[in-house]
Design a protein that fits this description.
With 397 residues, this protein is α+β, with helices and mostly antiparallel strands. The protein has helices spanning 6-22, 35-57, 61-81, 91-103, 107-132, 137-218, 223-251, 260-275, 292-311, 347-358, 391-396, and strands at 278-284, 317-324, 328-335, 362-367, 373-380. It contains eleven helices and five strands; from the N terminus they run ααααααααβαββαββα. A five-stranded mixed beta sheet has the order 1-2-3-5-4, with helices on one face. The chain crosses the membrane at residues 12-29, 35-54, 63-81, 111-131, 137-157.
Length: 397
Amino acid sequence: MKSWPINYRMLFALRIGFILLYCPVYFFAQSDIPTWKDAFVIGTIILFITNHILYDYTKKMRWFLLVAAIDFLAASSYGFVFLGGNLPDQCIIGLVGLILFMRIRSPHLVSAWLILLVFYWVTLLTVEYRLLDSIDIVSIIVNTAFVVFLTFIGSLIRYYQQARQESAELYDQLRQYAKQVEGLAAAKERSRIAREIHDSIGHMLTSLLVQLQVTRKLHPIDQNKSYDSLLKCEDLARGALQEVRMSVRAMRDDDWKAAFLESIRTLINDFSAITGMNITFHSSGDMTAVSQQVQLSIYRIVQEFLTNAHKHGKASLTAIQLNCNSSEIELNMLDNGEGTALVKEGYGLRSMSDRVEEHGGTFQISSDVGRGFEVSITVPAQLTPFEERDDDTRLSS
């Protein structure tokens, strides 16, 4: 019982409280009650209190059933000791059924309990009829209804408690699975970034090496061409450094969520400094509650768009708008590049589209010759899954 929530323990305490209030009534049940009956009531009260304490410490089922059996014998004795007293003697039996079915779930227990009750009623009515030559039908109906009602309540409480425990276990499992999925997504992202570093930076460094070799050979022959070649080497080195900075920043998990917008702004500032592109960025809403996977995807989509705008669109001006609300995230990006009448989905656009589809979003492209390129993205606001919560609130509310 100690592992049960506080509201169930309160119900368990009310049970013994009802017994302690109910049993002393028998002191006044009859005007000339014998002393041994007084001793019987006092003895059963002590027994009920002792069993109440034992319920808390009986972990094994057989000991629990033994304590419940003693409780039942003590409760059922009231019907024989105070025979014909016109008192609801079976109320305490109902409380025994309450605690029994709160603890145990078994179809065999239901059958055994019904057989026990039938045997008790037959025995009690037989004794009552032979000694008093009468049977109180109303008392039988009332007592039976009360016992059945409390037994049914005990079953409902046990069912509800088990459902809560199963829900808590499923919640913990689902939270662990979510963490595993998040870790796999992060690992996948790192692998993809590593591949991008190999492809983009490796290509730049190879070109830089070739250009340096050309510069070395041109230097004694034509210093002007050698100087132009050095300028190209400098641009290649800047581009490679920019790729390294952006890739490393995207891989950093620590404080990523808190510094997400700062990372976007740093990406834009660095890109603008290297390419000379004028980039405006506006954001609204709280992005800190958005899952890390969505944030990483948005970061890489902005990076890919800027790269395409510079390399393919020759854009000098780009506008980026990021809005986040409780239901969705909207990202609109527009440049003043050359544009095209026929949009061909290359690696960059396909990469952006795949990222959006992974999160169940929509991806739209519009462009025309001389009118630049526009990308509109809408992603459901996938909040960080299964945040840590107060277990006490979840289990005992």
